[in-house]
Write a structure and sequence with these properties.
Blueprint lengths: L2 E6 L2 H12 L7 E5 L6 H12 L14 E4 L5 E5 L8 H5 L1 H7 L1 E5 L13 E8 L2 E7 L5 H22 L6 E5 L7 E7 L1 E7 L8 H13 L7 E5 L4 E5 L6 H7 L4 H16 L12 H12 L1
Parallel strand pairs: 2-5, 2-6, 4-5
Antiparallel strand pairs: 1-7, 3-4, 6-7, 8-9, 9-10, 10-12, 11-12
Length: 297
């Protein structure tokens, strides 16, 4: 995972990328921020610095001061080299020593010349529609570094979704996953709800889940109501239907088994007596065989 490309359609997305980077950087890491004037380099750097220092930290652009430093463990150096006329001026700024001991954020890094540090992270921002796109080159860092960055970014997006839905302060308990890339969390706030995290680009589409859910409810069946959704991001907030799974219920009271399976059969008959939900993928025999093969695996 030497390169990562991310769409950042809003300013909030750029902020989240800065916050996620802050969680994986350490002393000796240098981020070379590339892109044209107004691409969002300072915005990203500001979000990163505030995450490591204070959300209300004053983070001015170093366009005129050339370097702004933020003491801590480690120190943070934020440099804007746009006004440099020769790479030798880098030596006068003291950046060489900072490269070894601090987190360094360098705008206009092409001015570094021979002073460019070894194994930097290169992050380029370019306009895309109303937002921007980020391309990140991780240098010689292991794949685990990129995976951690993406995991932190995903968690920040989930937090923002839940906060907007009014569940940002809810207690969270992870639930068992199914045979997919989805994950589930039970939320405890004013009652309970289920948060589904389904990363985009997977075979199981959140949009299809929403269609099937609406179809089942329209047939009068019990399916979780969707309390909030962001299909593009792959987030759903669902009604909590509880933990009454057949194996557990039957184990607690075996006399319920006939009635439960009769009810299940009635549901299947009810489904088959109505047209299928529209606009869903038409699975082939091989698709069904591959899905059934998970049992053996």
């Amino acid at each position: 995972m030497t390169q990562i490309t991310l769409d950042l359609p809003t300013e909030a997305d750029t902020t989240q990328l800065g916050q996620a980077l802050a969680r994986v950087l350490g002393a000796g890491d240098c981020v070379l921020l590339e892109g044209s004037i107004g691409a969002g380099k300072s915005h990203l750097a500001r979000a990163l610095i505030r995450t490591l220092r204070d959300p209300d930290e004053e983070v001015p652009s170093p366009t005129f001061t050339l370097v702004q430093t933020y003491p801590g463990t480690p120190d943070i150096w934020h440099a804007d080299l746009y006004r440099l006329t020769h790479p030798d001026e880098v030596h006068e700024l003291g950046l060489e020593a900072a490269f070894d001991a601090a987190i360094c954020l360098i705008e206009w890094p092409d001015r570094l010349g021979a002073y460019t540090p070894e194994n930097p992270i290169r992050l380029r921002l370019d306009p895309k529609g109303a937002g921007r796109v980020a391309q990140i080159w991780l240098g010689a860092r292991p794949d685990s570094f990129g995976a951690a960055l993406l995991a932190h970014l995903r968690a920040l997006k989930a937090d923002a979704f839940l906060a907007q839905a009014g569940w940002g302060d809810a207690r969270r308990d992870a639930l068992a996953q199914d045979a997919s890339t989805r994950s589930y969390t039970r939320l405890f706030g004013q009652g309970t709800a289920i948060f589904m995290d389904a990363p985009p680009g997977q075979a199981d589409s959140v949009a299809d889940f929403v269609k099937v859910d609406a179809h089942l409810l329209a047939l009068g069946l019990s399916a979780p109501k969707i309390l909030a959704q962001d299909v593009a991001q792959g987030f759903l907030l669902l009604e909590d239907l509880g933990d009454g799974l057949y194996p557990a219920v039957i184990a607690a009271d075996p006399t319920l088994e006939p009635n439960l399976y009769e009810a299940a059969t009635d549901v299947l008959l009810h489904l088959q007596s109505h047209p299928a939900a529209p606009d869903l993928p038409n699975l082939t025999a091989q698709d069904w065989a591959d899905a059934a093969g998970l049992v053996a695996d």
